[in-house]
Amino acid sequence: MNDQRIRIVDGEADTATVAEYENTRREALREGLTLGGGAIAAASIPFLLSIRKAFASAGGDEAIVMGAVQLEQAAVLAYDTAYNASGLLSGPVKAVAKKFRDQEQEHADALSKALTQLGGKPPKAPTDPTKVSLLKGLADVKDQTGALTFAVELENMAVMAYADAHAKL
C-alpha cells in the first residue's frame, strides 16, 4: 500500500492528513505547470462539462458510484495517454503525470470496491481514449501545455461532479 493513501474509517478523517494530501496534489500540479511553461489560464473545454452533468444526474447510490468509477477510469486513461505519448511531456512533468495516474487508479480501485459492496459490477477499464466520450478532446492535445490544460480542466470538472453527486448519495 502507498504510505500517502488516506484511510477514512467510520466516516472520520484527520483533517490535517486530508489537507496535507490535497496540498501535495496541488503542489505537484503547480510544479508541473511551472515546469511546463508557466501557469495556464483556465481554458474552456466544453465537452468536459458533460462529466459533471452525467455524473450528477445519476439516480441512486449504485448509479452514482458507477459514474464515479467511470470518471476515475477515464482519468487514469487520460494520464496514461499523456504519459506514454512520445515527447509530449518533459521529464519532471511526466513524473507528475505518473503520480496523478497512480492516485486516480487508487480512487478507481476504492470506488470499484464500494460499487461491489452496493451490489454493482464495476465496468472494465477502457483502453482506447478515442472511445471514451469524456476524453474526446484528448486527441487534440499536441504539446505539454495542451496536456496540462486538459488535466486541469479534467480535475476541475471532476471536483465539481463529486460535489454535485455528494448531495445525491
Number of E-state strands: 0
Query: Counting H and I runs of at least 4 residues, what is the number of helices?
Result: 5
Structural class: mainly alpha
SSE succession: HHHHH
Low-confidence stretches: 6-10, 32-47
Strand content: under 5%
Query: Approximately how much helix is present in the residues?
Result: 55-70%
CA radius of gyration is: 16 Å
Tell me, briefly, the overall form: elongated
The average pLDDT is 75
Distance between the ends: 28 Å
Major β-sheet annotation:
none
Descriptive terms for the model:
169 residues; mainly alpha; 5 helices; 62% helix
Commentary on this structure:
Helix content is 62%, strand content 0%. By secondary structure, the chain is mostly helical. Helix 3 packs antiparallel against helix 4 (91-117) and helix 3 (60-84) packs antiparallel against helix 5. It starts with 14 loop residues before the first helix and ends with a helix.
Characterize this entry briefly:
The protein is an all-alpha fold and 169 residues long.
Indicate the topology.
Layout: H1 15-35, H2 49-56, H3 60-84, H4 91-117, H5 144-166
Helix pairs in contact: 1-4, 2-3, 2-5, 3-4, 3-5
